[in-house]
Design a protein that fits this description.
The chain is α/β, with parallel strands linked by helices. The protein has 7 helices and 6 strands; from the N terminus they run ααβαβαβαβαβαβ. Helix 5 links the parallel strand 3 and strand 4. Helix 3 crosses helix 7.
Length: 162
């Protein structure tokens, strides 16, 4: 059994989840998130962190820059915020930020392994709303995702079906 599987089965993934945040926003409905991440392990951990919330999360995932631009056209206006990794294939995160800088789209949170000060400066200058360095270790990673969601989540009300 992997560390991830052990933590999930032991219920440790949701330890420390900030319930006050979810009480504040859970009445609003669905959290809509655009995730731009090419690492399948990181995608899985982010989805698992979101799975523990008391409100449902609709996550659209782009694995490269081209997919990200297509998905942004399709679901960008419905997204509460975007989580962006800087090192994605077919166009890096910086070029994605530059293309979005002039738009009035959702906030973009850079969630990356780069601790390079120049990457941080460029990302923030190009319109990133926040810059979070991916921590090492499962629990720290999950906690970082939970902190991002707490800070940037403003779910849209659930739409009634006809």
């Amino acid at each position: 059994m992997s560390t991830l599987e052990a933590n999930l089965s032991a219920g440790l993934i949701f330890a420390g989840w900030k319930q006050n945040c979810w009480r504040r926003i859970s009445w609003l409905g669905m959290l809509h998130l655009l995730l731009i991440e090419d690492n399948p392990a990181d995608v899985m951990m982010i989805r698992e962190a979101l799975r523990g919330s008391p409100i449902p999360a609709d996550v659209a995932i782009a694995y490269d820059g081209e997919q990200a631009l297509r998905l942004l056209e399709e679901v960008g206006s419905k997204s509460d915020f975007i989580i962006l990794d800087l090192s994605i294939p077919k166009g890096d995160g910086h070029s994605f930020l530059q293309k979005q800088k002039a738009s009035n789209g959702p906030p973009i949170v850079v969630f990356t392994s780069s601790s390079n000060g120049e990457d941080r400066r460029r990302a923030l200058e190009n319109g990133a709303s926040d810059y979070v360095i991916k921590p090492a270790g499962f629990q720290a990673f999950v906690h970082a995702v939970q902190e991002i969601v707490e800070r940037w989540a403003t779910p849209q009300p659930a739409k009634e079906s006809d």
